[in-house]
């Protein structure tokens, strides 16, 4: 692991995205909750959040981080689902891997839950959109 002992703690946030491409008919069934495995979006959202929390267990040299917030959102389009994942913490290292893992696990869960009705799906464009860090300013009351 990379040594971070000398680094100052900062507020850190990262946002990632990915896309599940699928048939419009599959998306319509998903919207109507008519797929065999049930409420696909809710299960995928929870899976993405859990994936972010388990990142250090999945990526061998990734620092385990106390996550303060993880969010997974879906934007439904005609033949694709855009997946947005964000992670936040206060720490000495960033949360890019946690945001990317959230998106990846959510995409894999969507794929798994839709594969019975759509054999032509693909997961594309998983990437980091943004990472931010902000120094923690100590308040001094006089």
UniProtKB/TrEMBL annotation:
One of its GO terms (biological process) is Mo-molybdopterin cofactor biosynthetic process. Signal peptide: none annotated. Keywords: Lyase, Molybdenum cofactor biosynthesis. GO terms for molecular function: cyclic pyranopterin monophosphate synthase activity. Its EC number is 4.6.1.17. It comes from the Bacteria. SUPFAM superfamilies: Molybdenum cofactor biosynthesis protein C, MoaC (SSF55040). Pathway: Cofactor biosynthesis; molybdopterin biosynthesis. Residues 1-133 form the Molybdopterin cofactor biosynthesis C (MoaC) domain. PANTHER family: MOLYBDOPTERIN COFACTOR SYNTHESIS PROTEIN A. NCBIfam families: moaC (TIGR00581), PRK09364.1 (NF006870). Catalyzes the conversion of (8S)-3',8-cyclo-7,8-dihydroguanosine 5'-triphosphate to cyclic pyranopterin monophosphate (cPMP). This is cyclic pyranopterin monophosphate synthase.
């Amino acid at each position: 692991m990379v040594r971070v002992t000398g680094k100052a703690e900062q507020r850190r946030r990262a946002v990632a995205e990915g896309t599940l491409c699928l048939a419009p008919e599959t998306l319509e069934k998903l919207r109507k909750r008519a797929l065999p495995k049930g409420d696909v979006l809710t299960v995928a959202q929870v899976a993405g959040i859990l994936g972010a929390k388990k990142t250090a267990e999945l990526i061998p040299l990734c620092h385990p981080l106390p996550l303060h917030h993880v969010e997974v959102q879906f934007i439904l389009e005609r033949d694709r689902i855009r997946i947005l994942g964000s992670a936040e913490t206060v720490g000495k290292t960033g949360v890019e891997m946690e945001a990317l893992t959230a998106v990846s696990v959510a995409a894999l869960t969507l794929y798994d839950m839709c594969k019975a009705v759509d054999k032509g799906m693909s997961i594309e464009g998983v990437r980091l959109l943004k990472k931010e860090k902000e120094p923690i300013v100590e308040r001094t009351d006089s």
